[in-house]
Each structure stands twice: as C-alpha cells, then as structure tokens.
Amino acid sequence: MKPYAIEAVHARRIYDSRANPTIEVEVVLAGGTTGRGMVPSGASTGKFEALELPDGDSHFGGKGVAQALHNVNEVLGPAMIGLDARDQRQIDARLISLDGTPNKSKLGANAILGCSLAACYAAANYEHQPLYRYLGGAMANTIPVPMVQIIGGGAHAANAIDIQDFLVIPISTKSFAEGYAMVAETYLAAKKLFQESGRPVSIADEGGFWPTAFKSNEDGLRLLTESIEQAGYCPGKDLGIALDIASSEFFNEKTGTYTLSLEDREYTPAQFIDLLCDWVARYPIVSIEDGTGELDWDGCRLLTERLGRRIQIVGDDLFTTNIERIRRGVSEKCCNAVLIKMNQIGTITETMEAISYTKSHGYLPVISARSGETEDATIVHLAIASGAGQLKVGSAARSERTAKWNEAIRIEEALGASAYYPSQKIFLDSCISKFNIR
Ligand code: PGA
Ligand code: ZN
Questions:
Q1: Of the residues 26, 206, 350, 400, which is catalytic?
Q2: Which domains, and CATH codes, for the chain?
Q3: pTM for this structure?
C-alpha cells in the first residue's frame, strides 16, 4: 500500500461535555500517520438533521453508542481500507453510499462524521499541515469573528428562560485576540452582576450563566447590555448582541403560535416578529438565529423582510446545513445567514459544500459547535479553511469551549501579518447594509 492509503480504522467510546457517550474514530495510514475525529452532539436538534444512531436501551438514557461503534468498526471502517486519505470527496462519497439514506439513519451521522474527520486529519498530518491549511489552501487567512454566549437558556438550562442563547459579538477591534478579550471581560462582568443581585451563580450546558430568577426574556437582554457597560465597553459599538431564539422549541405546530412560558404569553407569528422588531429597536442586536420555527417558512420570510437589511438573520434548525433547505431559503428570501454544523449533515465534503453554497448566494455562514462538545477544535480550522468569517462555540467558560477559542488565538498569532480579521466588516460587506450599530 502507498503510505497515504488507509490501513486501519478504529472507533472507541468517549464522553462529551454533558457526560453523554459519543464516538472517536482513529485512522491509521500505511505509512504510519494517524488522524482522529471526535463527534459532538446537540440537545435542541432540528427535525431535519442527519440522525445520530443512539442505542435506545437502558444505558445512558438511551444515548449509548454501541451501534455506531459497531457500524464504524464492522461496516464503514473496512470499506475505507486502501482508499487514498487525501481524497476526501471519494472517502465521503463511499461513506454516504454505504449508508444510502437521505438522513444517514442507517449507519448514523455520528459514525459517518467520525470516519470523515479522522481520515481528513490523517491526510493533513501526512502532508504535515495544520487542518485549516490542508483544507483551505495557501490563501486561507480569515480568522472568524466570535459569537459568544453569556447567558444560556432554553433546552440548555431546563427552560428557565425561553430564549436559548444571549450572546455577544465583538465588532470594534482589529484582531480576534483583542475582540475575544472584550468578550471575556463581559463574561466576568455578567458574573459580578449575578453575584451582586444575590442570585446563585451557576452555568448552563454551554458555559453561559444559568438564568436564575429572571422574570421575563427581556431581563436577559437588560443584563447582557449592563454586562457590556460594566466591562467598560459600549453596547452596539464595541460589542453587538446576538440572540439564538431556538424558537422551534416553543412553536406549536397545531396552532401555529409561539409561547413564551416565562411571560405566560402566546403569540401569532406576526406578533412574535413584532416583539423581535421591538427588541431590535431598543437593544443593540446585530444577529438573530431561529427567530421563527423550523416549520414556519412564512414567518421567516416576514422576519427577514422586516429585519434582514439591518441585522443578520440566521437559520439553524430551518436549514440544518442541508443544501436543499438552504436553496429553498435563498429562493424564498428566508434569512441572510446559515448556521453550519458538521454533524447536522454528516461529512466534511457536504459541510464544505454547504458553506460554499451559502457564500455564493450572498448569505453569511456561521460555523457552529453543538451544546454537547469535546476538546476537539476542528470547527476553528473549518472556519478558517472556508473563510466563513464567523464562529459560534457557546460561552467563554468550560474547556470544551476554550479549546476552540484558544485555537483561534494560536492560529491568528501563527499567521501574523497575513491574518485577516473582518470584525464588523463581516456585516457591512454583506447584504446587511443598514447595520444596527450605534
Ligand atoms: P444544540 O444547540 O447543539 O443543542 O442544537 C446549539 C444551537 O441551537 O445553536
Ligand atoms: Zn441554534
């Protein structure tokens, strides 16, 4: 066998940041080079995502991975033996065809992604290149603007508040390192505000603060704005606010309404969009994700019509990193940005294609982690390789999150003068011409 041919594939059970089991795949090339892929897992998963294959038995609340491990070790792995690790398209095509289903439900998107990632790392290691350079080539130099959670809610905090993520985006610095420093100071300021108000300080699944004793969803916006100020920064000038409403979680399919449990209020789509517009008018919000539910295309079109020239409108559950769904969004003018999650679609090839499609249609890609994560930092490399421009990784605390942020700091330093950090240009250079900043 040639030294870059895949000689062995092995999957093992490891654990994610919520103590759930997940899989790690290792690929060994004939020349001895190895590569490893670790698979993340969501909690507020979209209906149209590629499927993880959970065991469904009494262990780990049904989330065991014995089936997925079996599928790597006995089905996918053996079919990869002999393939050129540098031919990512061929490897992914083989994984996809072995599964044969549209949503990877036969062998599992977790099993398939683990194999895809491990082969990619083995090839990058064989070429002695960091992943961003191997995947992105000589011109890859865009360090992504971070979107960082300060308060965690929704399915990541037992629904103590309806909105899932209250986040900040640094928009006034020349580098990632400086921008991220403002974010970390904002996180620390928020902690102080929680302590001073006598609330217990605990954290949600992605490391953001647990929304204890909030009386309304708007309380989150108030606390976030105050945290930015307390940190010594100007809301809407130094740091913009981003929200992931994750509204599929509280959209009622039967009645077509949205319910905010904290306020005990039900909204028609038009009323809910009015509420979001009101928040955008009164707070320095620069991005809203899943403001409408994954089934509510009409609502999304209306939301985009009303806000899409002022702020970023991101589709996560709506698109699930699936080109067919992104295509519908583009043709129906729904959203102006796409959240990109590798395990929503299942292979590196399909993820890169979704990013290219998004960019070539004038939409902004936002590379994202999942709420259940590992120390793996692939998404940082993916963001730089693809020139996506934005990265969402949960909060500024917990090492499965800092593993990613710190990797971005390292790569920015390694690129030196060649690094490009878009800051607020990421929005200004797009269709968001009337950017909501002060
Ligand atoms: P998830 O949440 O990983 O639990 O789906 C992240 C998000 O909704 O963006
Ligand atoms: Zn989301």
A1: 206
A2: 6-128 (3.30.390.10), 145-428 (3.20.20.120)
A3: 0.98
